[in-house]
Write a structure and sequence with these properties.
Length: about 280
């Protein structure tokens, strides 16, 4: 923040003298808030949030949006974000946009610690975030499907059963939800022949095309970022009637009013997702 440590220390000392309380307890190992300091820091954070809202109100009046947008996402929705980000940046060139790909737990932690504004994750029955102080807004209902080469013996099927899947070599994308899904699947139906798990989509594609392996993924991912051309592959539903509803969605902190930048970008993203829903 381009401020020296001594300047910060002097500012805190001046504030303590003005308020008549000790905010930080200092020692050779560092400084920690006092009981009174924790209350002061909480109020200061609230004031900063209100000041941010004040600036945003002024920006909305002038129709000039400035600031930054920090988005953390699991890997699979990246292609969903691409068009929304480029269009949003074109409309608001003065907004600095940062996007990172992370695992779901890292995204949850970053949103809680105010390291990102929006977190895009898959929410399923074993992952509840509301009790953490987060809000989850559903963007897209999704389901797990299987894909393989058109040359596979399974190519003329629209549905694959658990027994059929267990009889095939399987390659998987390294994703939190895919891992959780396969763990649940194997606990219910037995061990699958998982050849490897990778973040390299080309390796998955080659295994399916050259060795007739089967891969699993969320249905929208095969539309937004296809592993194969539509003439080389077949997408099959899984014969698993007990599948629980699964949603792609966005998480934000409950105790923060979303910035005008976050709100406008999210509305832009929802329009793209609405168009995608008509395809999948």
């Amino acid at each position: 923040m381009h401020v020296t440590i001594s300047a910060i220390s002097q500012s805190i000392s001046s504030l303590e003298e003005e308020l008549g309380v000790t905010i930080l307890k200092r020692s050779r190992t560092g400084a920690v808030p006092t009981f009174e300091g924790e209350a002061i820091i909480k109020k200061a954070a609230e004031l900063l949030q209100k000041y941010t809202e004040l600036k945003e109100t002024a920006q909305s009046c002038s129709e000039i949006v400035e600031g930054r947008l920090r988005v953390a996402t699991i890997p699979s929705p990246m292609f969903l974000l691409e068009k929304a980000v480029l269009d949003f940046k074109k409309q608001h060139p003065q907004v600095k946009i940062e996007i990172v790909e992370q695992g779901s737990q890292d995204i949850i932690d970053d949103v809680l610690n105010d390291k990102c504004d929006l977190g895009i994750i898959i929410l399923f029955k074993n992952r509840l975030v509301e009790h953490l102080g987060l809000e989850f807004e559903r963007l897209l209902k999704v389901r797990m499907v299987a894909a393989t080469s058109i040359q596979s013996p399974l190519a003329f099927q629209k549905i694959i059963t658990p027994a059929e899947l267990l009889g095939q070599p399987v390659v998987l994308y390294n994703d939190d939800y895919v891992k959780w899904f396969m763990d649940e699947f194997q606990e219910e139906y037995g061990a699958a022949d998982i050849v490897y798990t990778t973040n390299n989509r080309a390796l998955i594609s080659r295994a399916c095309m050259n060795y007739l392996a089967v891969t699993l993924g969320l249905n929208y991912s095969f539309v937004t970022e296809p592993l194969f051309t539509e003439y080389d592959t077949v997408i099959m539903d899984l014969d698993l009637p007990q599948q629980s509803p699964v949603y792609l969605g966005v998480i934000q902190r409950k105790d923060r009013t979303p910035s005008i930048i976050s709100r406008q970008f999210l509305e832009r993203l929802k329009r793209d997702i609405s168009e995608l829903q008509q395809v999948i």
